[in-house]
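User: If only I could read backbone structure tokens as easily as an amino acid sequence. Underneath my words sits a plain record pairing an amino acid chain with its backbone structure tokens. This is the protein in question:
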Amino acid sequence: MPRIRRRLLLIASVAGIAALAGCASVVPVDVAPYATDPQCASVVLAMPDSLGDGLPQRDTNAQATTAWGDASAPVVLRCGVEPLGPTTEHCQSVETPGGPRVDWVVVEGEDGGWTFTTYGREPAVELHVPAEVADERSTAFVDQLGPAVALTEPTRSCV
């Protein structure tokens, strides 16, 4: 009987550790104010499984969000952020090879990371690229988001 009990205890311990390890890979994200917009579900579901080598898609804990890369410094996308009005910030049109053009307002953060926010699309989409990622690779992977982001309604464009 003690042998069976030890085996059950070992199995329970291994299962508990595996469950905790699974939770550790979820990226915590703040939900955007308009994340309940039904279009956001379509946008997030259409996102690519990876943004290139080393940036696989990860689970998040918030509605209308997704992430890629290492959980300690993930690239995070949120749908349903506050749409931008007219701005003097840098607005860049990004052509998707064989696909749509999406306008992004690009802002460098104090931490060295970059935030890309769609311009002239509703619901608005935001992509944050942390400094740890931007320092190691190009942010050209933004074009891979075009087909999914193009599911939002264009209302205006960069000038």
About this structure: Residues 24 and 84 are 33 Å apart (CA to CA). Strands lie at 57-58, 65-68, 75-81, 90-95, 101-108, 114-118, 121-122, 124-129, 153-154. The first strand starts at residue 57 and ends at 58. The helical segments are 2-24, 38-45, 131-134, 146-149.
